Amino acid sequence: MDATYIDLTIRLSLALLLGGAIGIEREYRAKEAGFRTHFLVALGSALFCVVSQYGFGVDLKDSSRVAAQVVSGIGFLGAGTIIFQKNVVRGLTTAAGLWVTAAIGLACGTGMYVAAALTTVMVLLGLEVLNYWIPPLGTTTVELNFSAPSRESVKKFISQIKQKGMEVHSYELKERRLSKEEFLEANIEVKAKKDFHTLEILDLMNDFSDVTISAIK
Predict the structure, then answer these.
(1) CA dihedral (40, 41, 42, 43) positive or negative
(2) What's the angle, vertex CA 126, arms to CA 123 and CA 131, rounded to 5?
(3) 167-178 and 212-216 as β-strands: parallel, antiparallel, unpaired?
(4) Which helix (DSSP H) or strand (DSSP E) does residue 184 occupy?
(5) Domain segments of the chain: what residues?
(6) DSSP secondary structure letter of residue 80
(7) Distance between CA 78 and CA 96 in Å, rounded?
(8) In whole angstroms, what is the distance from residue 39 CA to residue 102 CA?
(9) Which PANTHER family does this one have (predicted)?
(10) Which residue has the higher pLDDT, 136 or 103?
(11) Per DSSP, which regions of 25-138 are E strands?
């Protein structure tokens, strides 16, 4: 074996640390894949790379085959984190994070420590620092559930939401009965700017005492 046990330990340990660093950031953001998932992806990728280099003997000419399968195989894990729900795609950043974490693990497995460390710093820089300084662009979809005593109250509430610069994408009304009281339960989707804050809608509660918001997603 060309690599010493110390060298192998450094490669695998660095993959664990760098992958775990990205995982901690994702854990802080309460994303689907957190610390454990990311360090396992990085560590597994590094081990695959080490095995492809030294696990099949010195006569193996193409040691990149196993490592190449990691690139395509990680796609299945990333695809599992992507969710398409009600015309909204979620989990793309998490999937991309797993993909680049696998690349960092491969870099550690081949001994490219500087490249792995620089990539980790760039990933954290992009996820945290640049995300903080660059103003949010585009729109996001917000799902709002609320109840109101009449259709007129619902119309006024939606009209006020539009005045706040939000666009109503779809809505659904259901009639409910509680004891002798009848009311309407509304489920609407609105398009808002990515810097939207839920307090903007909650502030409307001061103007609509007969409207009760049950959930904002």
Answers:
(1) positive
(2) 150
(3) unpaired
(4) strand 181-193
(5) 5-133, 139-216
(6) T
(7) 7
(8) 9
(9) MAGNESIUM TRANSPORTER YHID-RELATED, PROTEIN MGTC
(10) 103
(11) 83-85, 88-90
Task: Give the HSE-up count for residue 140: Cα atoms under 13 Å, Cβ half-sphere.
Answer: 14
pLDDT digits (tens, 9 = 90+) for 117-157: 999 999 888 887 766 676 555 667 777 777 777 778 778 87
Amino acid identity of 212?
A: T
Q: Which residue has the higher pLDDT, 206 or 26?
A: 26
Compute CA 9 distance to the chain's CA centroid, rounded to the nearest angstrom. 31
CATH number of 139-216: 3.30.70.260
Helix (H, G, I), strand (E, B) or coil at 116: helix
Indicate left, alpha or beta for 138 from its phi (over 0: left) and psi (-120 to 50: alpha): left
Instruction: Provide φ and ψ at 52, rounded to 5°.
Output: -65, -30
The two structure tokens encoding residue 140: 């996001």
CA distance 43 to 101: 9
Six-digit token string for 99: 């993909």
